[in-house]
Amino acid sequence: GSMVRLPNKRSDPGYYDTVVNPIDIMKIQQKLKTDEYDTMEDLKADFELMVSNTKLYYKRGSPEYRDAQELENLLGKAVGSVMAGEDPSQTLGDREDSDLGEFLEELFGAIMTAADSTEPSRLLNIVFQLLPSRKRYPEYYEHISDPMDLKTVAEKIQKGEYKEIPELEKDLQLIFSNARSFNEPGSQIYKDAGVLSKLAKSRTADCVASLVARQARGSRSSRRQSRQVYSQGIAALQYEDSESESDEDSDLEDMDGSTDPMWKLYSAVRNFTTERGVEIAEVFLSLPSKRELPDYYQTITQPISLNQIRRKIRNGEYPTLQHLGEDLEIMFNNCKTYNRQDSKLWKDGNKLQKFFNTKLEELLEGGDEISAPATPAPAPEKM
Predict the structure, then answer these.
(1) How far does Cα 329 stand from its chain's mean position?
(2) Alpha-carbon span 375 to 343, nearest angstrom
(3) pTM of the model
(4) Mean pLDDT by 10-residue block, N- to C-terminus, for the chain (383 residues)?
(5) Which of 149, 106, 113 is nearest to 291 (CA)?
(6) Measuring CA to CA, which residue among 356, 351, 336 is closest to residue 280?
(7) Closest alpha carbon to 12 in 21, 23, 2
(8) Which end of the chain is more exposed for a tag (fewer CB within 10 A), N or C?
(9) What pLDDT is stored for residue 255 in this prediction?
(10) pLDDT at 309
(11) How far apart are CA 277 and CA 154, in angstroms?
């Protein structure tokens, strides 16, 4: 790891007391990209400096010392091949892309298999697989300028868009920094993002060092051939539209003219518009998908949506108007429990809840028949 990234000055100050001219692979890559090397000898000198620094500080026989020896051997072969007018990628093996692909999968797999240290059955990656719904969380896209999720990362792995391991780490870190920027510091997703961020950093260093060592040996490691490939399955995930709402419009036509107090209450909530004429109930029609927001179902013990309530009215499952009111109250309280008070969804839920309570009181005071089950809407439910 020390040749990929220099040791942290705070955690390993002794390195900088011993090594006068520190340099790592990241610095060499940066100098290559900015054309700072005039000759092959200049590039070779930096690699030799990096190797000698490592062998100077680390004990003989240590993993870091052995990596330096292997890199030194590889460097000699590569320079010799270039001087002879040969293609070093052919001399050292033509598997560079497949080797890179294996280590990209290894890094991605580390994120996919990371689990909660106190609850090993809970994988940390689930909530980062798919970006939140734009309809349900428009403020996320107002706050986050560069959205990223594991599905997009997996697609880029599958398409071969990453040319080096740190490029993959950059996208992973973007996912986790976005999560920490948008969510409250004490929330579970904030904590999980911190754990995965540290894991991505350490495993990137390991994978870069191992890839260099692999190329130095000039042989494929059979240890990794049986590793599970995660990117293909995650790349194939679909952004889900929670549950179907295809039968909603036909039902609304039937309930609009209904004299049943239950349909009156439901219709009033469903069709509520703000002072500016904006309908805000649509987001309550369906529950968030379990893949999109798995922690919702860990936080909310009685999830319910307007579509579910509509079906219960149709099936005559509410003995009284008050029973219907209880489910609507649960739905709004769920919204306010899960979402931040400064979010649009919380504010819409609060506004709709106040309107619902006023409408319920109005219907109860109006003396409507409230003890009999609601009359089912005549339209059959569509499959």
Answers:
(1) 31
(2) 37
(3) 0.56
(4) 78 88 87 82 87 90 84 74 58 61 93 92 90 84 94 94 93 96 87 95 89 69 58 85 46 58 93 88 86 82 94 93 95 93 90 95 73 43 34
(5) 149
(6) 351
(7) 2
(8) C
(9) 55
(10) 95
(11) 41
Residue 19 burial (CB count, 10 A): 19
Tokens standing for 12? 């390993």
- Identity of the residue numbered 343: S
Sign of CA dihedral 146, 147, 149, 152: negative
In Å, how far from its chain's centre is CA 300?
21
Mapped onto helix, strand or coil, the DSSP state of residue 115 is strand
| Helix, strand, coil percentages, rounded to 5, for the chain | 60, 0, 40
Nearest 5°: CA angle at 156, between 134 and 140?
Answer: 20
Give 273's strand partners.
279
Say what the pLDDT of residue 368 is: 54
**Cβ pair 48, 75 in contact under 8 A:** yes
CA dihedral 266, 270, 276, 278 (to 10 degrees): 180
Quick one: pLDDT at residue 4? 77
What confidence tens digit (pLDDT) does each residue in 121-159 have?
889 998 899 998 887 788 889 899 999 999 999 999 999
Contacts of 340 (CB under 8 A, 6+ apart): 184, 346
Q: Which two tokens stand for residue 72?
A: 């030194």
Question: Which residue shows structure tokens 């002879």?
Answer: 84
DSSP-derived letter for residue 320 is: S
Q: How many beta carbons lie within 10 A of that of residue 203, not counting itself?
A: 21
